Amino acid sequence: MLFTDEADPRVTVIERAITMRRHAGQVAFPGGAMEPTDPTIIDAALREAQEEVGLDHRLVRVIGELPAAWVAASNFDVTPVIGVWDGSVELWPADPREVGAVHSLQVSRLVDPAARVRSRHPGGYVGPAFLAGELFIWGFTAHLLDEALELAGWARPWDASVVVDVPDRFLRD
C-alpha cells in the first residue's frame, strides 16, 4: 500500500484491467506474487509497484509489513507492505495487461463517513467498503484499507448499518 507523505495524504489504488481472468475491473493495491529473483517480500512489493504503476523503488520509504493474511477468493497468502513516497511523480498503468487505471485517493475523502459503507456479496460475505467517486472498493482491498486507516489514526466513526450490494460487474469470478 502506497501512501504519500503530504499534509493531506493520498493512497494509490489500481483498477485491474477488464481483461484479467480474476477480479477484472476491481480496485486493488499495486502488488503481486514473489518471483525467484525477489530476495524479500518488500523487494517483491517494490518491484510490483514499478511494474504496475511506474513508481521507482528509490522514491519509496518502506514503513513495514502488516501480518500475512489468506485471501479465500484468490487462494493466496498476502503480506501487505506499507510504503510512503512524496507524490512527486504521476503514476500510470505501466502494464496495461494488468492495470486499467491508477488512482490517487485522498485519505480525507476516504475517511469521510459518507464514503463508508459495508458491502454485501450474494455468497454471504459482508465487509467494509468505500465509495470513492466512481470507484467501489470492497473485499480484501477494503479490509486492508480499513485496517491501515485505523492503524494510522486517520479513521473516523461511520454508520456501519449502511449496507450496499456488490455491483454486478464484480460478480463474474
Automatic annotation (TrEMBL):
<feature type="domain" description="Nudix hydrolase">
    <location>
        <begin position="1"/>
        <end position="132"/>
    </location>
</feature>
<keyword id="KW-0464">Manganese</keyword>
<keyword id="KW-0479">Metal-binding</keyword>
<dbReference type="GO" id="GO:0046872">
    <property type="term" value="F:metal ion binding"/>
</dbReference>
<dbReference type="Pfam" id="PF00293">
    <property type="entry name" value="NUDIX"/>
</dbReference>
<dbReference type="InterPro" id="IPR000086">
    <property type="entry name" value="NUDIX_hydrolase_dom"/>
</dbReference>
<dbReference type="InterPro" id="IPR045121">
    <property type="entry name" value="CoAse"/>
</dbReference>
<dbReference type="InterPro" id="IPR015797">
    <property type="entry name" value="NUDIX_hydrolase-like_dom_sf"/>
</dbReference>
<dbReference type="GO" id="GO:0010945">
    <property type="term" value="F:coenzyme A diphosphatase activity"/>
</dbReference>
<keyword id="KW-0460">Magnesium</keyword>
<protein>
    <submittedName>
        <fullName>CoA pyrophosphatase</fullName>
    </submittedName>
</protein>
<keyword id="KW-0378">Hydrolase</keyword>
